[in-house]
Amino acid sequence: MPRRHLSAPPPGRLEAVLAPRRTVPEPAATGWVPDGPEPGDGVELPGPRVWQALDRPDEVPESGPDAVGRHRRPAPPRLVTVPDPLRGAVARPRRLAVLGLLVTLVGATVLFGVRVAWARQAAAPHPVAAGAGPSGLVGRSVPSAFSSGTSTAGASSASGVVVVDVVGQVRRPGVVRLPTGSRVLDAVTRAGGALPGADLAQVNLARVLVDGEQVLVPKPGQVVSAAPGPGATGAAGASGVGAGAGGVVNLNTADATALDSLPGVGPVLAQRILDWRTEHGRFSSVDELGEVSGIGDKLMSQLRSKVRV
């Protein structure tokens, strides 16, 4: 801002301004001059700024916040200058753009979760069954249609249950299941009890049952062979008694193994003999063996000397 220099007013203008104010009479020759201010009925003289305005009427003093004066420092330059067209602009994104952004974020989140779950599942250990080979059939056995009494007895004993066949003079003859350690009396009771004509004197009701054996409740006058002891094996217990003297098999107490040992009798025919005995209770005579399907007169003649009741 250029400095302003005060200049003295022109002589003619000063006289024109001061002329009307000469209202105070000049002092007399006595030398008295008034010391106080001029009377107020005249015109006051303008100050120095009036003289400046009168001297330069076209100049206007600079003002405003951006004006740089003697005591005002200039503003520092801005780092970023926003163009005039962008000043006051408001960003308004479209709805489709916002929706697309949200869909992208959701898809990325779901994909990330699936990848994490798949990685955890792949890292988890998978238990392998013992003994499983490449084909999955290693160690697998095919059960036989007619299992031996020994295997059946072992399986039943391991499960805590004994299976016995109660026949003879009982109300409901057949196969019964009892807990391990049960007595013959328990088997007879489970079969409905003995009939009034049963000869219980020949039966040891206090004997411990052996899994797979047959309990015979005879009628009066019927001869009963010796029963197996508590330590008998499953094969011996299944028949009650084995082959008698001379290799004779008791049809009412023999199991599938003992019947299979007879000449001309195989596993299938031995099972048919057991099925007939289960259905009818017991053999009352050797001739009833001919009622079993598959036993003809020729085979019957071979078995007469090998079996008994």
Task: Supply the key terms.
single chain, three-stranded mixed beta sheet, 309 residues, DNA polymerase, domain 1, Ubiquitin-like (UB roll)
Please tell me about this protein's structure.
The longest helix is centred in the middle third of the chain and has 29 residues, at 95-123. A hairpin with a 5-residue loop joins β1 and β2. The protein contains 9 helices and 5 strands, in the order ααααββαβαβαααβ. The chain starts with 10 loop residues before the first helix and ends with a strand. Helices cover 30% and strands 7% of the residues. It is mostly helical and 309 residues long. Among the domains are: 156-235, Ubiquitin-like (UB roll) (Roll); 242-309, Orthogonal Bundle (DNA polymerase, domain 1). The strands form 2 sheets. Strands 2-1-3 form a 3-stranded mixed β-sheet. The chain has helices at residues 11-18, 48-55, 95-123, 149-158, 184-190, 234-239, 256-260, 267-280, 297-303, and strands spanning 161-168, 174-179, 214-217, 249-250, 307-308.
Structure in a nutshell:
It comes from Oryzihumus leptocrescens. InterPro entries: Endo/Exo/Phosphatase_dom_1, Hlx-hairpin-Hlx_DNA-bd_motif, RuvA_2-like, Soluble_ligand-bd. The protein contains nine helices and five strands; from the N terminus they run ααααββαβαβαααβ.
